[in-house]
Structures
1.
Amino acid sequence: LMRPLQGCRGRGVVVGTVTLCLAAGWALQTPGGVSLVVPQPNINATVAQNILLSVEYSCRGVATIEWKHVSSWGTTSIVEWRSGNYVNISTVYKDRVTTFENGSIQLRNVGMRDAGYYFVTVMEEHGTNAYGTIIVNVYEIIYEDLHFVAVLFAFLAAVSAILICFMWLCNKSLHLFQKKTTHKLTASTTEEIELETIEC
C-alpha cells in the first residue's frame, strides 16, 4: 500500500515541476510588462520658467505615452505619442511642449494655470499599463513687490532730501534775519546814544 502512494506523490512532484517550468517559459516568451520611474515627483517653478517633467520607462513592445494635466481649472490632455511613430500635441500646448524618447516632456514658459497634477500613462501594446504622477507648484515672481518697495524708497529719499534742503534754507534765512535784526538794533542803539549826547 505504501508504494503506490509514493509513486503518486512522485508523479505529482514531476507534473508540478513540469507545469511550473512551462509557465515560467511561457511568461519569459510572452512579450509584455512595462515599468515607469518618476525621479522627481514634486517640482517647484516660477512664472515664465521652463520645466522638465522627467520620467523613464521600459517595456518589451511598442509603448504609447500620454500626458494629462489636472488642476482646479479642469483636466487637459497635453500630448500623446507612440515611440517611433506619431506625436499628437494638444492645441493648447502646441508651441510649449517638447517630447523625449524616454517619455519625459518639457513645458516652456509656465504660468500660474500650469500648477497642478501631471499624470503620465505608458500603455504597452500587449495591454500592460504603468502610471506616474508629478505635482507642479508655480510661484509668481515678486518683482512687482520689489519694484513697489524700490519706488517707495526712492520717493521717501527724495522727500527727505527736499525736507533737508528746506530746513537748511530756513536755517540760513533765520541767521540772515537775526543778523539784520542785530544790525538794526545796533544802529538804533547808536542813534539813541548820539541823540542823548546831543541833548546833553
2.
Amino acid sequence: MKAARSSLALALLCLLRAQAELPVQPGFDPDKFAGTWHIMAAASNCPVFLSIKDKMKASISKFSFSPDGDMALRALFPMGDECKKVEMHFQQKGQVGHYTTTGEEEERDLYVVETDYERYAIVSSITESGKKPSTTLQLYMRSQDVSPQLLKKFKELYSTMGLTDDMLAVMPKSGEWQRDKQGDGT
C-alpha cells in the first residue's frame, strides 16, 4: 500500500511537471527573435515574484544568439527610481527554442512557446531551486502596448500550466527613462 502511494505521488509530480512545460514554437528562428523586447505581463508561482509583482513595471530585455545556438539575455527591471540589471547565458537544449542554464543554486529551462517575431512572444521558464520548482510564463512585446486579444491568449495559456489569476502581474509602462540611463535600454 505504501509503495502504491509513493508511485501515485511520483506520477502526480510528473504530471504537474509535464503540465508546466509547453511546446516550443515550431520552426523557431533565433535571428528573427533576437533584439529588444518588453515584458508586459507575467504569471508565476515563484515566491520572490509573488512578493514584488504589484510593484513591477514593464522591463526591457535584449536577446542575442551565438553561432553555436546559445542565447544571452540582458534585462533591466525598474524598481522604484533604480533599474536592476540581469544578465543570463543559456545553452540550447535539444530543439531550437529550448534553452537551459545551470547555476550553483538553480537550474532554469526556458521555452519560446509562441511568437510572431514582430509584435509578441510568450516565453515559459521552469526553475529548479531547492525543493520546489517554480513556473513562470511571460508575455513579451516589441513595444509597450498590449492588445486585449493577446492578454486573453496569455491568460488562457497560464491557466493550463496550473497558474492562477492571483499569480498574474500586468505591468504598467515604465517610461523611456530606462533607455536614457542605459544607452540602448539594456
3.
Amino acid sequence: SSQWVQLDRFIPNRSAMNFDYAHYMLTGGGKSKENPGPTSPSKDQYRYLLAETLDMNRTRILAFKNKPSAPAKAIPHDISYFHVRSKPVKPSRHIPQTSEKILDAPDLMDDYYLNLLDWGSSNVLAIALRNTVYLWDASTGSPSELVTVDDEIGPVTSVSWAPDVRHLAVGLNNSEVQLWDSTANCQLRTLRGAHQSRVGSMDWNNHILTTGGMDGKIVHNDVRVRSHIVQTYRGHHYQVCGLKWSPSGEQLASGGNDNLLFIWDRTAASSNNSTQWLHRFGDHTAAVKALAWSPFQGNLLASGGGDGDGCIKFWNTHTGACLNSTDTGSQVCALLWNKNERELLSSHGFSRNQLSLWKYPSMAKMAELTGHTSRVLFMAQSPDGCTVASASADETLRFWNVFGTAKLVKPAPKTNPEPFENFTRIR
C-alpha cells in the first residue's frame, strides 16, 4: 500500500510572481555597489520611494501565495487632528420667573388702544394714570407728578419721551398734544389741529413727533416751528394704536384697529401724496398695536395681533415678505426685542396674562413670566436693555430682569441734547 510522503519542497505560485523582477534579481541587478558615491538623506528617501512604487523593496524572489489585502490604516495617535472643533455653547443665563419689584398703578386705564408707558434713556419711567402723568426715577426709586389735566381735555391717552429724554409728549383725549420739560417741570407748548379725536399713539424721529389718532390719521409734527404739521398720512380707516419708527429713522410702521399694518418710507414725507405707503399688510385678523423693530437687523419688524388673532408676525420691510408667523394663543398687547440676544418678549391678555420670551428665529419659547392677574397692556425697556417694566389692567407695574445683566450692554448712543431750545414759554 502506498503511503503519503512528506516532501521538503514548495511549489511557487506563478500567478503571484513578477517574472521580470525575478529575472532582474537573479541576474545580479539587485546587488548594490561596493563603494557607492556620496548620497544625501533626500536622495535616499527618493530612491526608497521610487523602489516602493515599482514594488522593488521585496527581499524574496519566489512567491508561494497571493499577498493578503492591505490592512486598514491604523488610527493615528494624534486623533485631535481629525476632531472638528465646534463653537463653544454659551451657558444659558438664569431667567427669573418672578418680578423683581411691584408698584401700584391705581386708575391705569384698561384700554388696549392706548400707549401709557415709556422708559426714557435718562432712566425715568413715565406712566399715565387717567388724568395724571407720573415720573418714576428708576435710579433712586422716587416718584413725582408731572401734570394732571382737566377732565375736559383728559384723560391722558399716550406718553412718549423725546430723544433728549428731557422732554415728554403727552397725548390727550381731546386730540391735543402737550410738550413738557420734565427737568424744569413746565409745559413748553400745545400741539393743536393735527387730529379730530384722541391721540392714542406717538413716536419720535429726531425733532419730528409722529402722532396717531382715533381719526385714523398719522401726522408728522415738527416741534421746532410754529406751524408744526408738516405731513399727514392717510391709510388707516380706524384709530391708529401702534406707531414705531425704525432705528435708522427711514421707515415708520403703523398699526390700527382696522387690522392693517402699514410701512411708510421717510423719503416720501415730502411728497404730496399722503396715501403713498411702502407696504400695506392685511394678514392680521385683529387690531395691530404691538410693533417692534429688530435692533440687529434694520429691515426686520415684529408685529402682534389683538384678540381674535394672537399671532406674532415677522416682516422684511424692504421686500414686503412675511418671514414667519407664530400663533401665541392669546391677545398680543406689546412686543420688545432683547438688545443683546436674538430674543423677543411679548405680553398677553386672556387667559394667562403672561409675558413670553421667544428665541428668534426658531420662536422656541424660553420662558413664561406670570404674576399679573389681568391683561398686560404695556411694556417698556430700561436704558441698559436688561429690565422690562410691564403695566397691567390689574393696576400694578411690575419689573422683570428678563434680558440679562447690564455689564453685557453697550452704552446708549448720544442723542441731540436740545430739540426744543427755541421754546421758552407756553404757546
